[in-house]
Each structure stands twice: as C-alpha cells, then as structure tokens.
Amino acid sequence: MTDTPLILWIRRDLRLADHPALAEAAASGRVVIPVFVLDEVAEGYGAAPKWRLGEGLAAYARALEGIGSRLVLRRGPALEVLRALVAESGAGAVWWQRAYDSAAVARDTTVKAALKAEGVEARSFAGALLFEPWEVETGQGGFYKVYTPFWKAVKGRDVASPAAAPKAMRAPTDWPASDRLEDWALGAAIRRGAGIVARHAHVGEAKALDRLHGFLEARVGPYRETRDFPGRAATSGLSENLAWGEIGPRTIWHGGMRALQEGAAGAEHFLKELVWREFAAHLMHHSPELASRNWREGWDAFPWRGDSDAAERWRRGMTGEPFVDAAMREMYVTGTMHNRARMIAASYLTKHLLTDWRLGLAWFEECLIDWDPASNAMGWQWVAGSGPDAAPYFRVFNPEGQAEKFDADRAYRNRWIAEGQKTPPQTALDFFAACPRAWGLSPQQRYPKPVISLSEGRERALAAYAGRDRGCAPETGGAKG
C-alpha cells in the first residue's frame, strides 16, 4: 500500500513549512490529496474564528497551488467524509497534525479507530506544539500545574529545526470533487464587521513570516519593558497566525533563540510567552474540562452571576470604564485584543461584575480571530481565580490604576473610544460601523456612566472570595443588572 494515495487531512495547520505531516507526505513520493473538512468541530466555531478560517483556507489553497497541489474542500462529519474520500481515491492512508482540545481529541480518536479497523493507515503527527504534552512530566511523573516550573523544565530542551516548505507534491491524475469555499459562507455570522476586521488581519503563511521577521528585527529588544503598553506597537501579533497554524512554533522558537544569542534583551521573555501557549495546551490535554468546569477544587460553590444587563454592557464595550471598553471595542474592530487589555477586561467581568468566567470565554470565542481553545480557557480561569497558576486568586485589577500605569498618555483609550473626542480616529469610529445595528450605538451619544463604582465592585468581589467555600452570595449593592 506504499504507493496508494495519501489523504493529508488539514485542520488548523495552514502552512507549508515547519509541518511534519506535510513534509513526510511530500517526501514519500506518494500521491498526496490535501483535504479540509468543515466538520462537527469547525462548524462549532464562533463568528470571527469561522470568518478567519475562511480567509486562511483561501490563502492556503493558493499556497498549495504554488507547489503543484490543491486543497479539496468537503463538508460533513469528519469520519463520513474521510471514508468517502478513501473510497473515491483509493487512498491507503489518512495523516493529520494532532490537536489537543477535547472536541478535536474526541473526533480524532473516533476517526483513527474506525479507519484502522477498515484497513486504512491512520496516523497523527506532532507539529502544533514544541513539546507533546505527555513528554513533559514532573519529577513524580505527573503534569505541571504551575507555569514557572514548566518553563524551567523545557527551556533547555532541544527543539528540532523546522522543515522547509516542499517545492512540490505529487498530485493525482484526477482530483476528487471539491466544494467551493464561497458556498460555505463562513463569514456570514460576522456580518458587516467582516470588511472592517479584514483591514487588521494578517492572513497566510507569508504574512506570518513577515510578522515574525519584522518583530525580531525591530521590537524584540525592548519587548519585556514595552509589551504591557497596549497603545504601542510592541508585540509580535503572531497569536492570530499561530491559532490557524499559519506559522509553526518551531519556526518562532528558533527565530527567538537566534535573537537571544545575538543579545536581544527581550528575546527570552518572548520565548516565555510562546511556552505559555504550550503550557495551556499541556493543561488542556491533562484536564480536558478546562474550558467548561472550574479547574481548582472548592470553586463550584462560588456565587458566579449568570448573564445580565451588566454583562451585556461589558460585551458591547459600554461599561463606563474606558480601559475596559477600549479593550472590548478593539476586539470588535480588529478581532484581537492586547494581552494586558484582556486581563483587565476579564478581571472586570469576573470580579467587579462577579460574572461567570464561562460567559466571557464564550464571547471571546465568538469575537477573536486568534481564538485558541486552550489559551482562551486557561486565560479566563487564570484571571477569574478558579484556574491553574492563579495565585493570588483574590487579585482584582483596577482599570483606572492599570490605565494610569500602562496608558498614561491615553493613546490606547483614545484609539478605541470616540465619545467625547472632537475628532475621533477612524479606529474608534469603526467600532460603530462594525457592531450590530440592533445595538443602536452612535459616536455622537454620551459616554455611559459606570455600571458599578470600582471600589464597590472590588469590595463585593473580595467578600465573595472570602465566603466562596460557604457559597455565600454577597449583596449586589449598586450594580445595575
């Protein structure tokens, strides 16, 4: 069966270089049929991720054409679609890059077992991470639950050099039929926001590599000191491309290591951020419930509030707290949010508004083009206090204090909040063009009053934390909704 066609099942790995499964497939000399299946997992993506997936697939299809191949598109349950393709093409193997979130793992486990039982080689490859989650263990043989020891355990490990993109792949004489990408209408749910978000997206492998090179050339040196200032262009922006596999982590690691060896002061901290992503996947592999249940024991009795008018104001960027609202509006316009701003926005929802972290997690999943299931889940639980490495769990970020420290010149807030500015920038106006008309928002309206005073919200949160084991709900005070 070594000369039978090979189906390369593409998922969130839209690149040619640093792709072990694709590299081995190309080197095998076999006919390779790349296919993307809009399956039970991908159908569940939120509006912005699904739009970004469509953009990424279009770019990847063009990249494959450049090496004499093409991308076959099919829609339906993964196992059914792959079985049909095997029958149509006479393929003897299906290969893919591993995923680590529970939905993908369940799908892949079912597919692998069924195909093997039917005599088809089903093989999964590394490639999404630097280190497979089961390869990093504590001295006692368990998994790491705190980031710093995890970093110390992996920072000195060898990381294989990324494979170059193949120059060609053997194509079939007759290609299987393919759906048309435009017929899938992956951007339908994002509606009028698609054109605005598109201005800020950097789609495809070539743009991802440009991003990495630009960052390493100009911004990695002061990265540690500048990365927390959302008004500055100080970060790499690569979370968007990593989320869709448009760049491999080994490519980034080796680029960062070269910068470190050349004396770039911020290079190690940049590598630590890449390993933070690894840590999230490591935790999700070992704790599949990370995105759905409180990770730390003793938190199920915590008096989280459900959805409310206050939570809706948070979603709309209308809380009356400028740093929080700027963060939420940045996400609506660009599909991304600065990391410092994510912490402030998440802290405000879960602590000042005492709202269940799962509500915030779901909204980010709906709105982020760099949505990653493990990073999103760990980030929300970390801020809420219920998750891994979340000490001190009772920390409550003060949006005003954070703004004074990290946005003293108001560059970030002014970029995203139009109300009160005589001549607001286009970025701030774009929020009103991108958000649903049903919200009835206008840049001419008055900026809203705060949902709750910061001091009252903080005191209420601390009271809730103090009584969390007893399940004592605090008084709602002046919170609206």
Question: How does this structure look, described?
Answer:
The protein is mostly helical. The chain has three domains: 6-127, Rossmann fold, CATH 3.40.50; 129-161 and 203-286, Serine Threonine Protein Phosphatase 5, Tetratricopeptide repeat (Alpha Horseshoe); 309-470, DNA Cyclobutane Dipyrimidine Photolyase, subunit A, domain 3. It contains 21 helices and five strands. It has helices spanning 20-27, 47-65, 78-89, 102-117, 147-154, 181-184, 193-198, 205-218, 223-226, 239-243, 249-261, 267-286, 309-315, 322-334, 339-352, 357-367, 373-384, 399-406, 411-416, 426-434, 454-466, and strands spanning 6-10, 32-38, 72-75, 93-97, 121-125. Helix 4 (102-117) links the parallel strand 4 (93-97) and strand 5 (121-125). The longest helix has 20 residues, at 267-286.
Number of domains: 3
**Corresponding CATH superfamily of the largest domain:** DNA Cyclobutane Dipyrimidine Photolyase, subunit A, domain 3
Mean pLDDT score? 95
- The H/E string reads EHEHEHEHEHHHHHHHHHHHHHHHHH
In helices, the fraction of residues equals 40-55%
Unreliable spans: 471-481
User: How would you sum up the major sheet?
Assistant: 5 strands, parallel
Return the CATH topology of the largest domain: DNA Cyclobutane Dipyrimidine Photolyase, subunit A, domain 3
Would you count the extended β strands for me?
5
Helical/strand content category: mainly alpha
Shape descriptor: globular
CATH class of the largest domain: Mainly Alpha
